[in-house]
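Chain A, query sequence.
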Amino acid sequence: MHWKPLCVLFLSLLVVFAGAPARAQVTHSATEGKLPLTVGAGWSNYSIDWGPGRRMDGITAWADWRLRGLPGYLRGLGVSVEGECICWNAPDGIGQHKLQAGLGGPSYQFGRWKRARPYLKYMIGFGGMTFSTYNPYYSHDTRVITAPGGGADVYLWNKLAVRADYEYQFWPDLFGKTSNPNGFTLGAAWDFGYRPRVQ
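Chain A, predicted structure.
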């Protein structure tokens, strides 16, 4: 897959959705506290792109830092990091298969709609893949990978939120092609900076 159309699509979505917070509501349902940081972890289920219908489970942990003092539409811009290990329930025949990644990059959280904060992200980092092979000297490979994605944090109580996330990864030049593991993560997050506004 070519990078240029993907970048154009990502930037177009960012511009289109950036205007939505301006008309979502007159007053915010929450204010930012002293520490604009969200941390969390969750269960992940990925299509491993290693044959049709093959999925695996794992765990993902993340941290988001929201940049402060930005003007207008840049409000909501931040930096996200995540680590993941997709290493459980490997399909029959590829029992050693694992995906591990450490990623970071820009993220954008849209305006708050009551208790929900949708976001987009574009991550880059290192990914390691362990796989079953007949070659005793080649059963693991490491790549620089990219991963656009998005989701939403839904606040349940005070600073506690549930996160639903989707990510589509690009592992270039793996066995002569680009591999695209992708999947969902469902987890819990704690937002140190979220302060619900009393109406």
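The CA atoms of residues 100 and 172 lie 15 Å apart. The two ends are 49 Å apart (CA to CA).
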